[in-house]
Amino acid sequence: MEYIGDHYDDATIASQRAYLDNLKQEPGATLALEDVAAAPWDVVFQVGGHGPMQDLAVHPTIGDLFRDVLDDQDNAPWLLEDRLRLAGALYEAEPPWTPHVVVDGNLITGQQQVSAEKAAQAVLERLKIAV
User: Fold this and answer.
1) What's the CA dihedral at 121, 55, 81, 90 to 10 degrees?
2) Alpha helices in the chain (DSSP H)
3) Residue range 14-30, pLDDT digits in tens
4) CA-based angle 34:51:56, to the nearest 5?
5) 110: buried, middle or exposed (CB in 10 Å: 19+, 13-18, 0-12)?
6) How is the chain split among helix, strand and coil, in percent rounded to 5?
7) What per-residue confidence (pLDDT) applies to 59?
8) Which of 12, 17, 64 is nearest to 37 (CA)?
9) Which of 24, 67, 105, 120 has a CA positioned 20 to 30 A from the CA of residue 7?
10) Residue 14 lies in a domain
11) Residue 59 lies in domain
């Protein structure tokens, strides 16, 4: 890859376009949440942010998916701190923008996007995958 002045060389641009062209099928291969079952998956990884807070918090079937991946079938987690506390859950947090991960059996949660790397490492450790 070569950066020339204010642009990349033609070979780099062609390589990147080919890479993106190979990914065009991926978005069309996604599953609707209603069609997802926990059984075939080793991990269900839910990224946080405003979308999950607004959309998934009221989704009619996502709670079933999360419950199905837990060892304790009677203790289904949810996304909003208030709902967790109202249900009697122990909610742990650090100051905003501080990496913070909690592992409770096979439930692994991370606080904000700054915890993504540590949460991913915890998932790999739980799956006994060395990196």
Assistant:
1) -50
2) 10-22, 50-54, 62-69, 81-86, 116-126
3) 988 898 888 877 777 77
4) 35
5) buried
6) 40, 10, 50
7) 79
8) 64
9) 24
10) no
11) 33-126
Q: Which helix (H) or strand (E) holds 48?
A: none
- The CATH number covering residue 106 comes to 3.40.50.880
Tell me whether residue 4 is in a domain.
Answer: no
Distance between CA atoms of residues 67 and 63, nearest Å: 6
Rounded (5°) CA angle 11-16-18: 95
> What residues pair up with 107 in beta bridges, in sequence order?
104
The one-letter code for the residue type at 33 is L
pLDDT in tens, 50-89: 667 677 777 788 777 877 777 555 555 445 677 777 778 7
102: helix, strand or coil: strand
Residue 116 lies in a domain: yes
Identify which of 130, 126, 83, 129 has the alpha carbon closest to the alpha carbon of residue 103: 126
The structural domain count of the chain equals 1
pTM: 0.45
For residue 120, being part of any structural domain is answered with yes
